[in-house]
Amino acid sequence: MGSHHDDHVEFDATFDEIYPRLVRYCHRLTGDRDAAEDAAQEAMVRLFTHAVEGPVPALRAWAFKTATHLVRDRYRVDKNRRRLLQERPVAPARTEDPDRSLERREDEARARAALEALSPRDQEMLLMRFEGFSYKEIAGAVDVASTSVGTLLARAERRFHQALTGAEDEA
Amino acid sequence: MTGVDHLDEALLTALRDGVAAPADESRGRAHLDACVECRDHLAALEQRRTTVAAGLASLDTSFDLESARAAVRAGAFPFRKRTHRAAWARAAGAVLFLGVATAAAALPRSPVRHWLSQIVHSRTTAVPAPDSQAAGPAAPAETTGVRLDVPSGPLHVVLGDVTAGTEINVRWIPGSEAAILAPLGSRFTSATGRLEARPAPGPVRVELPRGVVPTTLEVGGRVYLARTPEGLTVSGPVVRRDDDGFVFRTPDR
């Protein structure tokens, strides 16, 4: 009885710690609400069914890595769709809140286009960094040497910023 | 141009974010104390971080966390509670059946023996593969789903975009928890008194609490089953039925 209750408490605590940020990451990565939910939920199901153990940061890194691979394998928008998104700088209607202002939708489209201008790996690294992951965790998730992460991240951030603002950053 | 004497952007970014290795941290801070140009660069990077974070945040939208929680829970622990109940029920039923059958067999001319043999015959023909299609097959390994506690009716279960030829196994169950379980890749939503799914191709299981009335099962815009205080109406394409439910198969398009 007690253990069943404890299972529920543990499930809820782990879910609450990981899922909201995971689905946000997947949504930023894909630009697709359904794909983001699919990938994030499947990664969470695998986390529990594989009985992955460890402190929350380790579980979170595992879930993000799994979701990253799911997105890469199944949901990454292809080049044609990416081009289409850039040519139509307004976000797809199905993700829009009717109350959103035009300015906000334009901000979103600009950020989407800036992100899509990066390579998939740079997108993953940038988004994971802005979710608070360490260089070592990012290296493990995107399969690059941890010694390269700092340089790659700095470059990805600079390119994203340039594409977002049109500014010429210092190299 | 950044000269060799200045800190590179990767190190400045690491210093900004507090993730530089200890040796780099010491070297970098010492350099910053003496170099105005690098301090300006660091300040620009701090501003850039704010702009980038705001840009990424503009991509965000809200999600239904409770539906996601239910879907993940069902996917991670499919049939866990039912497995225990079904095992106990099967064991109790088997013991009872064996006891009665043994008593009947002990009376060679007893009408009870004849009656029991008829019952056994009719049960085995009505349910072709005991347990394999109806009450408790092991959950497919790649199953996910959603559960909803429905203490009282109405309950509306909706399956949309169902692949032609899909088997939908509908079970009446005790308790108050309704569920849809379907292959991984299916999508689920829930609200008060309503469960909805767009199942990925493959068999679907729907669990309906026996005591909840009214209950409606709608598949592809068509009502397959409706249970009201007046009785049960089954209008979907039934391929099998037994005491605990129905198996429907959606028509080929």
How widely separated are the two ends of chain B? 67 Å
Largest interface: A-B, 52 and 37 residues
| Number of separate strands of chain B | 12
What's the arrangement of strands in the largest beta sheet of chain B? Answer: 1-4-7-3-12-11
List segments of chain A where confidence is low: pLDDT < 50 over at least 5 consecutive residues.
Answer: 82-96
Radius of gyration of chain B, taken over Cα atoms and rounded to an integer in Å: 31 Å
From the helix content, strand content and strand pairing of chain A, which structural class follows? mainly alpha
Overall helicity of chain B = 25-40%
Look at the helices and sheets of chain B and give the structural class: alpha+beta
Q: Total helix count of chain A?
A: 8
* Biggest sheet details of chain B: 6 strands, mixed
Tell me the strand percentage band of chain B.
25-35%
